[in-house]
Amino acid sequence: MRTPHDGLLPSSDRLRLLPLDVTDAESIRRCVEAAGPIDALVNNAGVGLLAPLEGIAMASAREVFETNTLGTIAMTQAVLPQFRQQRAGVVVNVTSSVTLMPLPLLAVYTGSKAAVNAFTESLALELAPFDVRMRLVLPGRAPGTRFGDNARRLMGEGVHEAYADFQQRVFAGVRDTSTPVTHAQDVAEAVWRAVTDPAAPMRIPAGADAAALAAA
User: Fold this and answer.
1) What is the pLDDT of residue 149?
2) Assessment of whether the complete model's pTM goes beyond 0.85
3) CA atoms of 82 and 86, how far apart (whole Å)
4) Annotated catalytic residue within 80, 109, 167, 170
5) Active site residue 109
6) Domains assigned to the chain
7) What are the CA-CA distances from residue 84 to residues 2, 69, 77, 216 (Å)?
8) Quick one: pLDDT at residue 159?
């Protein structure tokens, strides 16, 4: 975690929290060193951004790619020496079902996640000779988490007036819980399958809505 909080998860002698900022090379080095032997890496850190491109500051776009794309690449690179040497290991990259179907106001976020999809599938070929596996988990819309709330930080204070009505209609759809959605348990089960089942497919949708998109 960027800021470890002992009270966030149940205490267990099988669980250890370490500080990690995936955009900081020194933080990555310290975390991997402190972790010791690693069997699986799950790249789940991410920031969202739901806004018209015309109103997005380039600094915000860069932050999305720094965390979602380059952070994933940096973390993967950090564990590869030990995975290659032990000829075992799995990297699971959590992206999004938005990469399966184009959606409005998500151009920057979708771009950052689609890049990880391509990165993962290409790297899988590179690591196969060393018996290191790469997998993708694609969650759907998860209104039960705080992901949407956290995304608002990069959206700015105002709404570009030309897109105001359109943006409100999209936001209403995002908040709709009458259609199938993804729950945290769905993602946990998909990640567990990706880590433990060598026969799992490269792309694993997580959540009823993601599964429907993947099957379309």
Assistant:
1) 58
2) yes
3) 6
4) 109
5) yes
6) 1-36 (no CATH), 38-215 (3.40.50.720)
7) 27, 22, 11, 36
8) 65
